Amino acid sequence: MSAETLTDAFLIHSDLKLVYANPPFCTLVGAESPAQLVGTPLADLVTSEYRRPLREQVARIEREAAPTLGLTVEFQTSTDQPQRAIVVSSLVEWDGTERVQTSVFPIAGADDDVRRSLYDQTMDEAPVGITIADPNREDNPLIYINDAFCELTGYSRDEVLGQNCRFLQGENTREESVAKMRAAIDDEVPTTVELRNYRKDGSMFWNRVTITPILDDAGTVTHWLGYQQDITVEKRYEQDLSLFKEQAEGSDKAIVITDTEGRIQYVNPAFEAMTGYTAAEARGRNISLVKSGQQDETFYAELWEQITAGEIWEAELTNQTKHGELFEVSQKIIPVTDQHGDITNFVAIEQDITEKVLTTQTLDVLNRVMRHNLRNALNAIDGHAELLEDRDLDPDARQASVAAIREQAASMQKIAEKTAEIRSIWNPTEAHEVWDRLDLEAVVETYQRRYPDAEITCSVANEGEIQVRNAKLLKKAIGEAVTNAIEHAGRSPPVVTVTTQRESDADQLRIRVADNGPGIPAVERQAIESGAETPLGHSLGIDLWLMEWITTTLGGELTITDNEPRGSVVTFQLPVGGSRNE
Question: I want to staple 495 with a disulfide (CB 3.0 to 4.6 A). Which of 167, 465, 516, 565 is the partner?
Fold first, then answer.
């Protein structure tokens, strides 16, 4: 809003100090120029008996207790005679800042002069419908309407003036809202209602109506000020949002609504179940609360650039729950715009695809195993079987062929066992969500007994009891790491060290299994890190994948690094529960 858009006497103020006064108001109070009044306390411009009610009125407007309020006051002038006037205050945006605007309607002495002043000093530039009704006449008729009211309702002034405002009501106008206005008039108090009204052409619109009494210095209601705003678009938005939320409540996909800064305004129950955050915990926080750190800043910069340009963004990424568990999601972010095309919100729709990702990897790996390992084993068995059919085969060669067949059979048996272990990861009866105690030292003792020739040590930090999700399944992964380290050591004695490290600022545990073997081939490490299957040379690959799948299932992350001076370090990073030692 600018000074040029209004011609009536009005002023703009903040904290009861004038920011601007237009020339008609300056003339009213005898000021030489608007600049002379800037910074003047508003209360100083009225006579002493009206200062307190004026302060109270403005305070109610500033704390948004009412959208608009009217009051009869007396302004001090350059003459000895104060000027009585009706002042109407409401919040406006002035030079990009929220201020209070007070419009001034001078009042003459006689009733006819009052009416003429009300007609002549209009607020036709106001963006909302404004009416003034006279309670001293039968049926409280309208004696003033502005142009915005005519535009809102489709009625001309001649059709409206002298009537009670109830002509806007229709068949779907709720009696409760009308009764609330009647009670406010009887009690001579302001009120705001939202009701269905009807234009002259019969079309329905939602009307937010505020009525407030205008009092004289004796406290008598002289007029009723009506403030009417078309909120049809807002109501439709509320209805659409209500329908959206109703559908979102039953969706199995996580749905999040944020403002344009990424602050969460709504989450559905699926989001709560997926992330562990309740709606109350998430609301008001930035959507980054589920970031896992698995994507770099460039990823998020590109995301933000795309959605703030009004484009839909889709990708698969890794998020993190309240408890630190990692999970894979397919995410779509949709910008929401208003009628002007400006972005008002973002809606994010997420589907947990962790199981889908793991299933795809499992099928790829098993396909490779079946094609490569089983084919090689069967070819070897078939070849040695042909040798055994030769009756002239010497005993040593026969014994070697039998041993080779048994070795290949054992290899096939191992593949079958691994397949059963993989199946146990996906078995819905497995209690993946149950947190229980992990006794890592007992796990290591099991393998010390199984491999007495190996040097297996365990160092557990004294940080209290360790609780993890499904300790039984995690023990399988740790066991795979220890077994592989020993069986592929390539030197005697195999040395394996198992250690733990608890993150000081998060409920995260690192379990490190270090060995002195030849190291895990780069091609296999790359496959695990990228999450994509590549041709692997031997069965160690399926063991690595088994560790990866278990860790991912439990919401953790598996990493493989070099050990110094020789060997590999397999690290399981997992969310943990339980208490630490005080």
Answer: 516
